[in-house]
Amino acid sequence: MGQTIVSERIHPQIRKPKFPLEKIKRESGFGKKIPFFTAFLSSLSVLFPEGERFFIRSVKAFQNEIQDETLRSEIKAFAGQEAVHGNVHDKLNERFVEIGLDFRSHEKMFCWLFFDILEKNILKLFPVWGKRLALSITAAAEHFTATLGRFLLSLPPEKVAWIDPITWKIIEWHSLEELEHKAVAFDVYQKSGGGYFTRIFGMTIAVQLLGLLAVVGTVRALFYFGFPNPKQIVRDIRFFFGSPGFTWAVIFYILEYYYWGFHPNNEDDQALIAKFSTIVASSAY
Ligand SMILES: [Fe+2]
Ligand SMILES: [Fe+2]
């Protein structure tokens, strides 16, 4: 396969942080200064709880086919981490409703489109391949969350100063754990016999669905946050297209996934994981 794995396997660690969500104010949300990115993060938060439960289902559907003891225990840790992520984002989304940022209809639209229409019917029509496709979509989405996590944790402090401090703590913790378990779904996919074409088909579906939902969610969120002023628009464009540039990072990492010999551990995140494990462990929450 030509895979060059540079990073060692890291066993995901389940943490149960408690965040003072009641302190998040309407004026801040995820942070006001970069409105498009703030709106984008808010729209993702809405997709996380049910999305992460889908990840757990699709990985667990293959756990009996995995003989490797290390990977089996990583599956448990992966499911544990994603379950806590789902619960924290549920509470965060409830807090958003309390402060007037009500995205429940967006969440409903996502669940209807993805679970009621796609997941249910594909699994009914193609029970074996459907399970495989669900896992490949999960592996692709996990690559996306690891990419987003790496991008956010690599930003210099002055670039994250605009983010609300409580939501930043949630981002730090969630991003760290996404990096820790970035290879689990992918390894389960490969070790259970998943091939290249369904793998990239899963990424193609994930990109289109996530792209559509993120764009619709971001536009809807902007109505809550208020349309940005010209200064903010310039800052947003720089954030998305300047250096380090969120857009370029996403395009690069999505294309990388289509490489035949791709593996999540081709990217070495050990220094970031070590740094943020300490930060998250010493956090007051
Ligand atoms: Fe997660
Ligand atoms: Fe994840």
TrEMBL record:
Origin: domain of life: Bacteria
Keywords assigned: Hydrolase, Membrane, Transmembrane, Transmembrane helix
GO MF term list: hydrolase activity
Pfam family, one: Metal_hydrol
InterPro entries listed in its UniProt record: UCP07580 (IPR016516)
Bilayer-spanning residue ranges: 200-227, 239-260
Statement: the UniProt record of this protein carries the keyword Transferase: no
Signal peptide span: none
Record protein name field: Metal-dependent hydrolase
Protein's organism: Leptospira langatensis
